[in-house]
Amino acid sequence: MLDAQNQSDDYPTRLKSESWLPRKDPVVWPQEAAVAPAGKAALTEAEVQSFDQNGYLVLKGLFSDAEVAALTAEAQHLRTGGGNLPPEDVIAEPGNDAAVRTVFRLDENNRLFDRLARDARVAGRVQQLLGDALYLHQSRLNYKPGFTGKEFYWHSDFETWHAEDGMPRMRAISASILLTDNSALNGPLMLIPGSHRQFIACAGETPENNHAQSLKKQEIGVPSQESLARMAETHGIDYASGKAGTVILFDCNVLHGSNGNITPFPRSNAFFVYNAWSNRLRAPYAAPAPRPDFLSNRQPKAPITLEDGTFA
After folding, report:
1. Quick check: 8 pLDDT over 90?
2. pLDDT at residue 305 tops 50
3. Which phi and psi (to 5°) does residue 272 adopt?
4. CB 312 within 8 A of CB 64
5. What is the pLDDT averaged over residues 200-220?
6. Quick one: which of 269, 260, 56, 287 has its CA closest to 153?
7. 5 pLDDT above the threshold of 50
8. Rounded to an integer, what distance in angstroms lies between the CA atom of residue 13 and that of residue 288?
9. CA–CA gap between residue 86 and residue 105 (Å, rounded)
10. DSSP characters over 198-215
11. Which of 177, 115, 124 is nearest to 311 (CA)?
């Protein structure tokens, strides 16, 4: 499964039995000389330390009310069939093909969300933490409708991106921009603080076309209940809530998931996965073939260009 570039693997996974490995990469990376400073979008020293310690950060008040309203309206437009989306970019809820669960390639399918992905208030802060120029590994809208929204089970994103996409190092960060209010009740993002410092190598081989099943319900590449209980007993479980417009940055290896939503209040968020330019993908480390392009950007043309100023 490995090409000549991938003979050394610091994070072997999808083996016969589960194991824990210490993280071998920084959480906050030293700044590359060619990377411009974050400027007005810079994180404070306390925020950087919090991200390093916990593996995530909740930022509020970055966007104006008008910007949040524009994003919310555009997300609803996409969910209800607007935008002429390619069929492969739209994933339905398990057991309900009429309910949209996820829209992928958000930056390619929509001009406003493309602008959001390059916004210095978000990408500039990520660039500060990763210390390198960025590109989008993946982008998507996640919907969790009221009453019927399904859960996302506990997992480390890096485990999948490493095993199935060929991401070499833990040098990627997800940004979740809340497009509806996320409370403790309607299935917010849950995280295990500090879990990003251990890599849980999961048991079980990767089936062919595993993504087709995992996008609806992930069963391969998830930690055992024993490991999750041990992590939770050691670090506790937190949840990230906030009003629409709140931004959550979280490390690629922090364990996270979310409950189902049985409240009347829908939840929707935009996700942008930023990978360091120096951390571009190789051959998969533990899968027979790479996942499709809508899940992993295998040939980025250039780093993204950060945009200043408001967009609404």
Report:
1. no
2. yes
3. -130, 120
4. yes
5. 73
6. 260
7. no
8. 14
9. 10
10. EEEEPBSPPPTTHHHHHT
11. 115
Beta strand 256-258 pairing with 189-191:
antiparallel
Residue 50 tokens, joined: 């919090």
- Which residues have a Cβ under 8 Å from the Cβ of 183 and sit 6 or more positions away? 241, 265
221 CA to centre of own chain? 15
pLDDT recorded at residue 217: 55
pLDDT exceeding 90 applies to what percent of the chain?
Answer: 76
Q: Which residues contact 97 (CB under 8 A, 6 or more apart)?
A: none
Are residues 96 and 148 in contact, defined by beta-carbon separation less than 8 angstroms? yes
Alpha carbons within 13 A on the beta-carbon side of 284: 23
How many C-alpha atoms does 140 have within 13 Å on its Cβ side?
21
pLDDT band at 90 (very low <50, low <70, confident <90, very high): confident
Report the pLDDT averaged over residues 197-205: 96
CA dihedral 65, 69, 71, 77 (to 10 degrees): 180
- Alpha-carbon gap, residue 119 to 307, rounded angstroms: 5
CB–CB of 285/11 below 8 Å?
A: yes
> Distance between CA atoms of 156 and 114, rounded to whole angstroms?
25
Task: Return the closest-CA partner of residue 259 out of 312, 182, 169, 187.
Answer: 187
Whether residue 108 contacts residue 102, with contact meaning beta carbons closer than 8 Å, is answered with: no
Report whether 168 contacts 252 (CB < 8 A): no
Cα–Cα distance, 238 to 54 (Å, whole number): 10
Domains of the chain (ranges; CATH) run 25-35+55-279 (2.60.120.620)
Element (H, E) at 48: helix 45-54
Provide the strand spans (E) within the chain: 19-22, 56-59, 90-93, 96-104, 134-144, 152-155, 172-178, 189-191, 198-201, 238-240, 247-251, 256-258, 267-276
